[in-house]
């Protein structure tokens, strides 16, 4: 049975991956600080999945000390262990059917930093790195964030924003805006299959289709019995529309990703939030 270390034990993706993968792998989860302190002789894993990050990396100009992926790669350079890092669709310009071979886009500090990280980690680990360029992941946090601690999160998901707004009985009118979404459940399944096949390289992880925000919002709000108001989007709202081409991923692993399946999952999230109040 393959052994996996997940770094970032309290992260949204890290927590979900841990519970999804522990059925088929020997899993250990640690904080970034604890992992960096480990002796190399105690790092006995086939894959390390880094889900940790920090606000300075997301918001500021690149600095090596803020690049946790790079620091992990340096630490395991001499080992046989493979590293899985979470990149972003923000490395591309907005557009339709974006492939891994499309030109990369330095539009923000975050996208610049992710591109630099990819290059640096590949240079160190060569064929021992798996880079996942992720679209928007749909899924609830175990303890849903409040307005008070919202700003303390390194990443806030589409679902986070939705539930924060719905507490105020507000829904933004997204008109014809669309993006690309994938459920955390499907994302975890994809990661599992890639690790089983010992895959390395760079892959888009996405639905691979236009998903209109109005649909996603209606699905997430499906079990809400309260009245709410539609309001116009703020002027500064990120309206960039895109979807990723995931054909390279589908050639590598046998995976089915459907809009119907995403709808069902979103309605389950809605049920859990509005009816069970998790």
Please, could you describe this protein's structure?
- The chain is of the alpha/beta class.
- The protein has 10 helices and 12 strands.
- It has helices at 12-21, 32-37, 55-59, 68-76, 109-125, 158-166, 184-196, 213-220, 247-252, 259-274, and strands at 3-7, 26-30, 47-50, 82-88, 129-134, 136-138, 170-173, 178-179, 181-183, 201-205, 211-212, 229-232.
- The chain has a 6-stranded parallel beta sheet, sandwiched between helices. It has a two-stranded parallel sheet with strand order 6-9.
- α5 links the parallel β4 and β5.
- α1 crosses α7, α4 (68-76) packs parallel to α5 and α8 (213-220) runs parallel beside α10 (259-274).
- The longest helix is centred in the middle third of the chain and has 17 residues, at 109-125.
Largest sheet, described in full? 6 strands, parallel
Number of separate strands: 12
Q: What is the radius of gyration?
A: 19 Å
Shape: globular
Low-confidence stretches: 143-152
Can you summarize this structure?
The protein has about 280 residues and is an alpha/beta fold. Helix content is about 35%, strand content about 20%.
State the main characteristics:
278 residues; single chain
How is the secondary structure organized here?
Layout: E1 3-7, H1 12-21, E2 26-30, H2 32-37, E3 47-50, H3 55-59, H4 68-76, E4 82-88, H5 109-125, E5 129-134, E6 136-138, H6 158-166, E7 170-173, E8 178-179, E9 181-183, H7 184-196, E10 201-205, E11 211-212, H8 213-220, E12 229-232, H9 247-252, H10 259-274
Parallel strand pairs: 1-2, 1-3, 3-4, 4-5, 5-10, 6-9, 7-12
Antiparallel strand pairs: 8-11
């Amino acid at each position: 049975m393959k052994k996996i270390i997940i770094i970032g034990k309290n992260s949204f993706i890290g927590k979900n991956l841990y519970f999804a993968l522990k059925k088929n792998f020997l899993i250990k989860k640690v904080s970034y600080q604890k992992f960096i302190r480990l002796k190399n002789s105690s790092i006995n894993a086939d894959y390390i999945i880094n889900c940790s990050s920090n606000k300075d990396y997301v918001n500021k100009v690149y600095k090596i000390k803020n690049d946790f992926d790079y620091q992990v790669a340096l630490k395991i350079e001499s080992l046989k262990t493979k590293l899985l890092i979470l990149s972003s669709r923000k490395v591309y310009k907005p557009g339709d059917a974006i492939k891994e071979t499309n030109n990369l886009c330095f539009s923000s500090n975050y996208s610049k930093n992710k591109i630099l990280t990819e290059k640096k980690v590949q240079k160190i680990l060569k064929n021992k790195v798996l880079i996942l360029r992720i679209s928007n992941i749909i899924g609830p946090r175990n303890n849903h964030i409040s307005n008070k601690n919202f700003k303390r999160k390194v990443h806030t998901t589409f679902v986070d924003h939705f539930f924060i707004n719905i507490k105020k009985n507000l829904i933004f009118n997204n008109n014809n805006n669309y993006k690309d979404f994938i459920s955390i459940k499907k994302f975890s399944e994809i990661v599992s299959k890639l690790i089983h096949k010992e895959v390395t390289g760079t892959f888009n992880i996405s639905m691979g289709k236009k998903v209109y925000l109005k649909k996603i919002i209606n699905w997430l709000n499906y079990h809400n019995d309260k009245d709410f108001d539609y309001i116009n989007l703020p002027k500064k709202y990120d309206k960039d529309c895109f979807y990723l081409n995931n054909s390279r991923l589908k050639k590598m692993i046998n995976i089915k990703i459907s809009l119907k399946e995403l709808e069902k999952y979103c309605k389950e999230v809605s049920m859990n939030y509005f009816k069970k109040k998790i």
